[in-house]
Amino acid sequence: MKNKCLGLFLLPLSLLLLFFAPSTGDATDDKVADDKKGFIGAITCKDCHETQYETYAKSVHFQKYIKGPQSQDACETCHGPGAAHVEKGGGRGVDIFTFDKNSGHTAEEMSAVCLKCHATTARMTFWDMGQHKKNDVQCTSCHTIHVQQRTKVDQLAVCFQCHRDTKAQVSKQSRHPILEGKVKCSDCHDVHGTLSKAMIKAETPNLLCYTCHADKRGPFVWVHPPAEENCLICHTPHGSRHENLFADRIHVICQDCHDDASHHGAAYDATSGFGGANVSNRFVARACVECHHTMHGSVNFRRSFSR
Amino acid sequence: MIKKVCTALSLLPFAALPVSAGAEEEAFVYRGVIEAGVQGVDVDSNNSAKFQEYRDLDDGFIGSLQFDALKGSYFFQLDAANPGLDDQSLDVHGGRYGKFKYNLYFDEMPHNYSFNARSFYRGLGTNHLVVPADPTANPPNSFETSTDTWSVFDYSVQHKKYGGEVEVSLATPYYITFGVERREQDGMRPYSVRENIEAPQPISYTTDNLNLKAGYLGKTFSASISGYISSFDNDYKYLLWDDPSPTGNSMANVTQNAVTDPDNNFSKLAADFSWRGLPLKSALAMSASYANLSNSVSANEINVNSATMAEFDRLNRTNFDGDIDYTNFSAVLVSEPVEKLDTRLYYRYLERENNSSRIFYSTGEGDNARELLSYDKNTAGAELGYRLPYRTKANVGYEYENIDRSTPLPAFVEAPETYYRYDKPESTTNDTFFAKLKNNWLGWLSASIKYKHLKRDSDFSGLVYDPYQNVGVIRFDAANKTMDEVKLGFEFSPFDRLDFGVDCTYQMNDYDNSRESRTDDERKNIYFDVAWRFFKKATLSGFVGFEHTETDANRITNLEDDLAPVYAQYVDDDYWTYGLALTLPDIVDKLTFKISWQYQKSDGSVEYNNSLTGTDLVNIEDSDDYTKQTLEARAIYAFDANWSVTVGYLYEKFKFSDIAYANYQYILDNSDYYSGVYYDQNYTANLGYVILSYKF
User: Fold this and answer.
1) How far is B149 from chain A (nearest CA, A)?
2) Same domain, A128 and A64
3) How many CB atoms are closer than 10 A to CB B298?
4) Which of A102, A190, B491, B636 is the most exposed place for a label (fewest CB within 10 A)?
């Protein structure tokens, strides 16, 4: 208890001290490079694009302490030199680099602008290998640069722009708490690229699922081979019509493998329910799981089927 | 250990202080939003926890806080939501640009399965479930026959997650990341102590995670090594329960033992590297990792002994040492060897080796060796993309994947029959080919078509029991099959403020040699959305989703004798969802209005073909059927630039029906006892709230 209290005290104190400590005047040049050829400086841009400038001024890009636009050529770091744009009286995309989808620039060209600085960040290590780059998704497809104030990123809205199938699935009756924001797309997928299939944040689906479902890891004395091999054989992760994210009605999915002697392969129909003429305790309520509750594996030494 | 790590983590920011000493003073900038309000909830349901499955929605106060502060190169961001509620969260980000950053978080969430469940057991929530005598019976029964006197409880597990991470780079190409995390789960989850006796399993799980990563980030070359340790602890490793049924399969009137989830330790060591700027505009990335999952379970620890297990004295050992190794290697090479052509070559290797203890009884009674699944997986692929004229891109690719499970498959003797596992094919090979064409020449119209073909071959040569090979009842996910899939996609923006999108998928799986089990399945999905921005900032959006799945199977009902299908089964599932959302900012001066509506309908059935052998099976019409409607409306009035008030309303109606829960009974045939989990999920809920916001 003592240690806990000490930790609770130390943590905010250290953060506060750190925050109020004087910061360094970093050796970055916040002077806009208006003397370079074709560059006009941010003040000129602001004359026409005041709203955009204001949002830029509130963003992390305005930080002069990092290698970013403000320590380079401000607006023109990303949009390119603006002299020709000004000379022609402005206009959308006129002699200026824009990130509109109708700008005529390829996704790679647009991402290259951001990657000038962001390529050397840890999260972009595998960008070249990812499916997003391959499918012409550029940084601005997901990231909005000019925003008024830090807003909580609505990750679902961003991802669902393209992943319409997932949008339909996450609201199904059986699902992960994705709509509540307790599980995010980025908890399982690394959108900036991985070497794994479906850009998941682990080498296999099972190793990913075990991050939260540590109780299903085992090792078990008795295992269920499909469960050991791939959780996605029985479960569908984004949402399901069936309880517990099962990919199909439970007695159906079990019988697709266990269609043998005894009750495994018995026929269950509409008369097998509580109100039917041939009620079966293998069909009612949670069906197979009512007995085979250790379907992920068990460490019971007993050979009995319920283990 | 975790305490020491947390203390070290909290002291870490002090370490950065000297770096800033003596520097000039900078202005302090802060901004944020404070929200506070009240909400009222009216839920019309009997036992449904569905409305609150992952959230805490009750009458009372609600609020949130967002606080951002900047001081020179330092930044601090705090987000707090739903303080004091079961789904509260606190997230702190901070650091110094270019030097270091940290993140501290606390997040909790309920997982409510069912409210007002019932059980004749006493001692719920502990790991000893006791059967009370029924005082109303004469003579008293060993259990209560009237559900009126049963214990009432909620199936609910509270999840908590807290931890922190620090990344230090000190404006160099090198960086170190260090994080700790604890996850806790407490509550009760549905369980079955014996066949058809539903009772709550007490849950008290703790998982401690620790990660460390060090790396180098260069313009063309980056590399990192990382370590991860995760330890899972279960406070209730077994559950003692009294058997209420003298005619049950277990020993009657004796305290029985159910074994739950084992503790485990997982550790992983990984190395990654990527190299850009290679010849032919190539980039190469490689990743390798080794992981170990282990545990040690003694019979004594889980209360397994001769009193709780009949076969105990015949065991070769009473300690199980779990030991599974994972070895991974992945490599991807992307290139642009000539203009307009891009290539991607990849290889992935996974070895899962299960070296856990072999438990066996006496000679001829088998063991668990056939359960200790080990396998190797090799995946290799090549993809080519070529940019054709008129902004058209063509992609083709091929992937080879082989899973080798060639571990011994000993016979499972259960006299007088000898069984061999039919769910463990020795190897499976997938050959996948795809071709994709995408065009966005018009700028406002983008269209794509993708075709994928998969051919799967499984080798069941390890299964020597002929009937199994002939019958072909094999696990469907590994059975021989061909899959054909076509995907169409359109993005359509005829005007600057109007966007349409459509995705369609048709997939057909034909399980070539499966005469029984699943024979084929078909999926048809279509998704459509539209967004229209009108007036100044108003938005009207809508979407429609439809999924249709058909799964056909032949059932033989008895593997030993009947080699021909007895009946055919057709599972038919439809899922519809559609919705609309309207946002009207500044509908009148300072007033913003938002409204959204969504409808879902799930309709499933199982049909039978009785003509094969003259069965009289009756079709199932209610198979996980449900409808759900959600309406949410919100009006936001801004008094000025800082103050605003939000008045909101949420309506939800959920109706579920399934043949397995219709006419639900707690006691069946005086031997099966159900607790009511999931049986009545219907609800209608109305929620209203008023929130005052102050932006600074």
Assistant:
1) 22
2) yes
3) 12
4) A102
